[in-house]
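TL;DR need structure tokens for one chain.
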Amino acid sequence: MRRWAAALGGTALVVAAWGTALVTPDDAEAERPFSVPVEIGDRGEGRNLAVTVTGIRAADAATIDGWDAEGPWLIVDLEAAAVQSDLRATLSHATLSVDGRTYRASERPPDSMFRSELAVGVPRSGSIAFELPEEALGDDVAVLSLGLEADPRLDSLIEVHFEPSTLDRIEEAELMSSGWAR
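>> reply
TL;DR here they are.
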């Protein structure tokens, strides 16, 4: 009887170890950012970032303060503020994922909310621009991700899901100048 009990106990331990191995996340999954999904117009709040995307526009050209550039552009108007601390509170992560490809916000516009410093409780408003290939404005669902760290692992990301094809496309879009909101 003892042999059966030992064999049964050993089998139970092997099954438990196998089950534990199946449910343990791999390194990539364990470091995944904490997604905060929001709709356009709603405020999303992460670890040290609060963002309201006030509008998204598609355009054939972008302009601000005498600067202009041709090409398909996606302009994101937003308000952002730090929540807990001014220390390293910079909007350093702005990406757009469409159809398995990820695009980073353009650094070309001279005045952009991308990489702007934020203050606690005092929102800044402005625009972020994405220069995209034509196919990125198609029927696929796009995910706009905004965060404080260029590498967002183990941090929060504010995410807006939308369909670029539903946006009215205009000939030229003026970016909002960055400044203190309200």
